[in-house]
Design a protein that fits this description.
Residues 293-309 have a biased composition (Acidic residues). By secondary structure, the chain is of the alpha+beta class. It has 16 helices and 38 strands. The protein has three domains: 8-262, Phosphatase 2c, domain 1 (4-Layer Sandwich), CATH 3.60.40.10; 264-332; 522-776, YVTN repeat-like/Quinoprotein amine dehydrogenase (Methylamine Dehydrogenase, Chain H, 7 Propeller), CATH 2.130.10.10. The longest helix has 56 residues, at 411-466. The radius of gyration is 40 Å and the shape is flat.
């Protein structure tokens, strides 16, 4: 059974009377049980660096606006209600700026949060702090999205972050000054040591003892098991041994209030409430009249009202609260009588207007009908004469005779005909225009919905990253990207609304996918200096010598990486170097030629000597590797890896190494360090051990997905795999357990051919056309 969680929360405010430079304020809402069940609680923390009467008015306006707009709105979706409340709050703060100026914004900091169950949404302005604390780590939630204190006076609270507070997680809202006296690590340890009330007591003691007259404020929310907490507790404390104002409150967020709701259900019951409300609203004759009109249906409605949900009861409760607030004002002004005479006057005006409109419409229809009748009579007369129009131009004679007949019509009929044609044209245009208008309107609604949904997905991705859920964040970002890409570039304000969102999604995806772009890597060797028509296919590094193999003429070129000077090592006309493998000690380089002959390269002697090897008949060897005195050949034709043991100066016949059926038809490259790693043209990476699939290897989700693997390389003692994905112009660096570590995008290198790494893994070498690029590792 899933454990029920409850929120334990407390607040601390320290305002020193001799510190007039700033003032802090916190607020935790106290909703009714039904309001909390539907919308949760509001948490507010504010700091203003203008300690005067305006600051107090500012706090009051913010709290009153939030509390009323959030709990008295028309929407019961938590996120939408919060967005609407923030919009109203922004409008209220703009009005304050119009009255007092906007200088106060430079010293204003605030963070506002709403919490219902585990779901939380919050928005911040200025330099306020928010930390997510989970056991051994603390995350500064606002650090990446911080505006550095710069506030937009038009939209002070401009964005919303969303997420879930899970078991044993805590959310701490605080003023900027708290980090001057408590490190993040110390905050984490204090929060994890005890309950929220105990944490506030320790904060109070530490801050008052070390911070002289500095003002502080913080709000702490801790998620605990319901069974681990005392039900129904609600405490609030103040410091008694200091002029410092310090208040703390600890309470369950849901369970105690639900019990209270059950105990008071009779007072809030929807079945009794309508009659109770009717008696209260007799003071207002207009409202009383409306209730009297509905009284006949009251008996039939009582049974359905008994079945209303909590949201319905909450609406009734709000209606009563609003009416009660307005009642006193109405009593002071006196009772107002319904304006019956005004209503009758408006009814007469509307009736007369409708009668006139009907007459105009009937007249227009009559005119159109007469015009069509005249036209039809004319066509019938033409048919009755039995005449045939003759013309050298065929139908043009009919047109001329029709025009002449129309010309001979009486003036009144001509007018009717013209009016009819005009109305037909106007009607057709209006229909077309209306369709286009409706289509444009619907397209606009769809675009706005896509933008809104994409923004939600981006926020969900940020929340997932807080919990190190990269796969979840990647999925949310890809959904957001898809929604934005569905919007046509011709849409209104596309560059202002859609393009920035797409850029934000790309930035977030690059971060999730560990992408680094390399625009201008260093060239370590350019073999076109040796032969301009060179066609290199493979490279190999042995000690400090970089070898390059020409697939067109079989020649081998070399360059010292410590003193690059490309030169021809061996010229082998007519040979095709199919693939290359090197010994683990770096002494020997083996070459498999097109004719399936194996040779070993003597670099000092600049010769290639044939080496005996018993390759299987009909084998399609796409790659091979030398490991532990054995040669392993990757056979894509027979879905097999052949193991050739050393025999004299060569290698014997191949033995089947695989112990299970594995599809190797798409295999392109192989590396061996005791385990066997195979890359394929289908973008798959396979890890094998002792002839079978390694069940502990799980390839991470990579975005975008891997294209055909051009090369796979590593070192025997290293813990990384290097994958060359030429199609996507990148190098993917994996752990040997399959975890994604980095992606390097080679933005200007399209069509790379091969890659190798030096033994101490300080540099990667990538072949592109006739040039070899050197990429530093570990930076």
């Amino acid at each position: 059974m899933a454990e029920d969680l409850t929120a334990q929360f407390s607040e601390l405010v320290i305002n020193h009377p001799d510190n007039l430079r700033s003032i802090c304020h916190t607020y935790i809402s106290d909703p009714t049980p039904l309001e909390e069940k539907n919308l949760g609680r509001i948490f507010v923390l504010i700091e203003e660096h203008n300690h005067n009467e305006f600051a107090q008015e500012l706090f009051k306006k913010i709290v009153e606006t939030l509390d009323y707009e959030y709990y008295h709105g028309t929407d019961f979706d938590m996120e939408i209600a919060f967005e609407n409340a923030l919009q109203k709050l922004n409008h209220t703060l703009q009005e304050l700026s119009s009255e007092y100026g906007d200088d106060w914004l430079s010293g204003f900091s605030a963070v506002i949060s709403v919490l219902k169950g585990e779901k939380t949404h919050f928005s911040a302005a200025g330099r306020a702090q928010a930390f997510l604390i989970q056991k051994d780590k603390i995350i500064d939630i606002l650090s990446q999205g911080s505006s550095g204190g710069n506030i937009n006076p038009v939209r002070i609270f401009s964005s919303i972050l969303s997420g879930d507070l899970r078991k044993n997680s805590s959310l701490l809202l605080g003023t900027e000054s708290i980090l001057e006296y408590l490190s993040q690590d110390r905050i984490r340890r204090l929060v994890n040591e005890t309950d929220s009330e105990g944490v506030m007591k320790k904060f109070d003691s530490l801050l008052r003892g070390n911070a002289s007259s500095t003002n502080f404020a913080c709000v702490l929310i801790k998620m605990k098991n319901v069974s681990a907490e005392t039900q129904g507790q609600h405490s609030k404390q103040k410091s008694s041994n200091s002029p410092v104002e310090a208040k703390k409150r600890v309470a369950d967020s849901m369970s105690s209030l639900i019990n209270q709701e059950r105990q008071t259900s009779e007072l809030l019951s929807p079945s009794l409430w309508p009659n109770f409300r009717k008696r209260l609203k007799k003071k207002d004759e207009v409202v009383e009249k409306k209730l009297d009109d509905d009284d006949d249906n009251d008996d039939d409605d009582i049974e359905s009202e008994d079945r209303e949900e909590d949201v319905g009861a909450m609406k009734e409760e709000r209606a009563y609260a609003d009416h009660r607030e307005k009642g006193d004002h109405r009593e002071k002004r006196g009772k107002r009588k319904p304006s019956a005479n005004k209503n009758e006057a408006w009814q007469i005006i509307l009736k007369k207007t409708w009668e006139i409109t009907q007459k105009v419409i009937l007249k227009l229809v009559s005119l159109i009908a007469m015009a069509f009748q005249a036209l039809w009579s004319f066509i019938k007369r033409q048919k009755g004469t039995g005449k045939k129009f003759r013309s050298l131009n065929g139908n043009s004679g009919i047109i001329r005779n029709t025009a002449r007949r129309i010309k001979n019509l009486p003036r009144s009929r001509k007018i009717l005909l013209v009016v009819a044609l005009v109305f037909i044209i106007l009607f057709a245009q209006s229909v077309i225009f209306q369709d286009k208008k409706q289509e444009t309107k619907q397209e606009g609604v769809t675009i706005q919905k896509n933008i809104s949904d994409a923004a939600i997905k981006i926020d969900e991705a940020k929340a997932a990253l807080l919990y190190d859920n990269e796969n979840g964040a990647r999925a949310f970002l890809l959904e957001a990207q898809k929604l934005l890409q569905e919007i046509p570039a011709t849409a209104e304000n596309y560059n202002e609304t859609v393009v920035p969102k797409l850029a934000e999604v790309k930035t977030q995806l690059d971060a999730v996918n560990h992408v680094k772009t390399i625009d201008s890597p260093d060239i370590i060797a350019d073999f076109s200096q040796v032969f301009s028509d060179i066609k290199l296919k493979k490279i190999e590094l042995t000690k400090n010598t970089l070898l390059a193999f020409d697939e067109a003429n079989g020649s081998i070129y070399s360059s010292d990486i410590t003193n690059p000077e490309p030169k021809t090592l061996i010229s082998r006309p007519g040979e095709d170097t199919t693939t290359v493998a090197s010994n683990s000690d770096g002494k020997n380089v083996y070459i498999l030629s097109k004719g399936k002959t194996l040779g070993t390269l003597n670099i000092d002697g600049k010769t290639v000597q044939d080496v005996a090897i018993g390759l299987a008949n009909g084998a399609n060897i796409v790659d091979f590797a030398h490991f532990s005195s054995r040669m392993y050949a990757l056979d894509a034709q027979n879905n097999q890896i052949w193991k050739h043991a050393a025999s004299g100066t060569g290698f014997g016949n191949g033995e089947k190494w695989l112990q299970e059926d594995i599809n190797l038809a798409n295999a392109t490259s192989m590396f061996i360090d005791g385990s066997v790693y195979i890359g394929g043209s289908d973008g798959k990476i396979i890890k094998l051990f002792s002839g079978s699939t390694d069940s502990e290897f799980t390839l991470a989700e990579i975005g975008p997905g891997l294209g055909p693997v051009t090369a796979i390389t590593a070192t025997e003692n290293g813990d990384k795999l290097y994958i060359l994905d030429s199609t996507n112009k990148r190098i993917v660096i994996l752990g040997k357990d399959g975890k994604l570590l980095e992606q390097w995008v080679l933005s200007n290198l399209e069509g790379t051919k091969d890659m190798t790494v030096n033994e101490d893994e300080t540099f990667l070498y990538v072949l592109h056309n006739s040039q070899v690029y050197q990429l530093p590792l570990g930076q």
